Known about the structure:
Layout: E1 2-7, E2 11-17, E3 23-30, H1 35-53, E4 62-67, E5 70-72, E6 77-81, E7 86-90, H2 91-99, E8 104-107, H3 108-119, E9 125-131, E10 135-141, E11 144-146, H4 182-188, H5 196-205, H6 209-233, E12 237-241, H7 249-265, H8 267-271, H9 274-277, E13 278-280, H10 287-295
Parallel strand pairs: 1-4, 4-8, 9-12, 12-13
Antiparallel strand pairs: 1-2, 2-3, 5-6, 6-7, 9-10, 10-11
Organism: Leifsonia tongyongensis
Family: Belongs to the ROK (NagC/XylR) family.
Protein name: ROK family protein
Amino acid sequence: MRLGIDIGGTKTDAVAIDDGGLLTQRIRLATGFGSSAVVETAVSAVARIAELTGVSAGGFDSIGIGIPGLVDSSSGRVRHAVNLGFDGLELGGELAGRLGVGVRVENDVKAASLGAYHLMGLTGSMAYLNLGTGLAAGIVVDGLLWRGARGIAGEIGHIPVDPNGVLCACGQRGCLETVASGSGVARQWRTDDPLPVRSLFAAAADGDPEAKAIKARLAAGIASAVRVLVLTADVESVVIGGGLSHLGDRLLSDVHDVLESWGEASPFLASLELPGRVRLVPEGFPAAAVGAALVGVV
């Protein structure tokens, strides 16, 4: 039995999976804010899953955590987890001390990449394109995460695509994340709707010209991310996940249209068959939590 915990900005998802890879238990908790509260949230999640499965913390084959921020997977240290209220935390060490067992910590997008690869039964190479507040990707090759030399493989959201664009949080201008993400949509489309992208798509469907233009930029930005991932890593498939993936076929259709138009203009891009490589993660998939359960053993 393996235990995986996905610690998000507002909620924490925890799962147990058996030796056959099947999900046996799943719970959700509110995520605490600040380093101490995050540790307590993780400890509570372990206790709840342990109670449901009848397996003590020390009885799990592995315990893994997926969490936003810059993660040193070898030490379990997390930095720059702004949405969780801390800049540095020895999460792996803190949890090991509280639980009495080793805990593996991984960036949440990388964990989700591994979870999607496993849950969708994929083989070969895959990129998981996470479209949430920000934009980032994780790459899996033959079932193993590819982290790169310094652990930032897949951080394509900070590739500048417009040198005259808006200032990105990373300090560069015109990064892909500024147009192809939830925060990018919220900056361009002012609304009282707590989900700006939902309001954007509704307004575009009603014919609002500004909404249609922003929606088109969003699709082009996501298509650009797909193109980058294929041209740099030549992955066999790109799986779109994250909050924006809940738009489903409405989003995927727009991205396919952009990729197909590029193929019509470029025989080279047409030969890459980009539209056929892109798919959505199935709705309701606990990809990050399952991936967290797996990072403890891969």
